[in-house]
Amino acid sequence: MPTVAFITLGCKVNQTETEAMSGLFRHRGYEMVDATEKADVYVINTCSVTHLGERKSRQMVRRAGRLNPDAIVAVTGCFAQLSPAETAAIQGVDVVVGTQNRSHIVDYVEQAREQKLQVQAVSDIMSMREFEEIPLQDSPGRTRAFMKIQDGCDNYCSYCIIPYARGHLRSRSLGGISEETRFLADAGYREIVLTGINLGTYGRETGRHTLVDAVRAVLAEPRIARVRLSSTESLEISAELIELMEQDSRLCPHLHLPLQAGDDAILSAMRRPYTTGDYADLLKRLRSRVSDLAVTTDIIVGFPGESADRFARSLEFASAMQFAKIHVFPYSKRSGTPAASFAGQVGDAEKKCRVADLMQVSEQGSLNFRQRMLGKTLPVLLERIVDGIAEGLTPNYQRVFIAEEIAGLTENQLVQTELVGICDEGLSGRLKK
Ligand code: SF4
User: Fold this and answer.
1) Which of 75, 198, 213, 357 is the most buried (most CB within 10 A)?
2) Is the CB of 158 under 6 A from ligand 1?
3) Is the CB of residue 153 below 6 angstroms from any atom belonging to ligand 1?
4) Per-residue pLDDT, 138
């Protein structure tokens, strides 16, 4: 049986796509092996969101070639899409596929093997208008599944290369969402996480549907106990979505709303179409309607023009927003984006200090949030039971560890759990009888 190994860099969308592509290989008789092992095929799903993501992508491609010089090396994802010639020129690369045509990846690999020729299958992503369905063939896990329902972004934030790698907005059909939901429910999954490059714009290109319709299509399947949204732009949180989250407890009270900066001048330079005031108003509205809501975010530090004063304002605003977690990124210059040539670039040492300062705010916010959860009883979806400890997530994405009276518990079970203590990675819980 031929073997295939995947190496995935970057975001949840890439991980979801890897899952779908690995299903295509399994369906065609390949056995999955770890990426550190010798394999017949290596697929590297690359990332371009930062220069580090790109550097690591190139390293992984070279490493795969070294692990087995006879292997077929297929490179896909954002780096392959943005730099197809550079990708194709890396020693040992046999197949180059961008962010489209992934449903044919096994054919390309076999074509490269049979014809002993490099296959280049990168399309003009800007001309793509249809969402590419990669039907799930099988399902290796069974607790929480990621489902990609949207691709592309038309926002063109001044620092971001992703719209050039992913093209214009494309949404999966409601029929496709319902079908995959049934497939995942049949496989035993209890939770579905909806993902997309700009998830909140689901359906916008046709004007016929919205994200709420997509969520309702999943909720229509009663065997799915939870639906979670991955990263969503704050501007895309509609009144209808808030109402649904308030009324249907199966839609998890957890939103990841990228803030990117807590200073209005920087937000404007980033071409983010909101102010800190808009963002704060949204959080106030959400928190008044949705109980136990966890809000997490992304913030970029060291954006060009971010003076010490502006950063201090950003820090203060982030602290006031009481995020349950902040993903902090040092600004990374992406050539081809407007911000790469902005004046006032910030040095690496200063960016490092700012990352550390903001991480402290993140840790304090996380602690405060967990403290507010103490004493509450929430359903925990158990993901694993190892060494006498059952571990899973609450609807608002807090990791809970249960160490007492776990006999008889099984993975994938939902258990009412009283949150009784704070630990390093989350909360400790006690089963509620
Ligand atoms: S919304 Fe902005 S940051 Fe997000 S993918 Fe689109 S351009 Fe990039």
Assistant:
1) 75
2) no
3) yes
4) 72
Q: Give the β-pairing of 399-402 and 389-393.
A: antiparallel
CATH of 374-431, one of 3.90.190.20, 2.40.50.140, 1.10.1040.10, 3.40.50.720: 2.40.50.140
| Residue ranges of the chain whose pLDDT lies below 50 | none
- Segment 18-39, tens digit of pLDDT: 999 999 999 999 999 999 999 9
157 C-beta closer than 6 A to ligand 1: yes
Fold of 3-123: Rossmann fold (3.40.50)
Q: Angle at the Cα of 59 (from 56 to 63), degrees rounded to 5?
A: 135
Instruction: Tell whether ligand 1 has an atom less than 6 A from the beta carbon of residue 160.
Output: yes
Distance 139 CA to ligand 1 centre (A): 30
* 60-85: pLDDT as tens digits: 999 998 999 999 999 999 999 999 99
Question: Which bin fits 421, alpha (ψ -120 to 50), beta or left (φ > 0)?
Answer: beta
Question: What is the distance, to the nearest Å, from the Cα of residue 187 to the centroid of all Cα atoms in its chain?
Answer: 22
Tokens 């998890």 belong to residue: 252
Alpha carbon nearest to ligand 1 atom 4, residue: 198
265-372 is classed CATH 3.30.750.200? yes
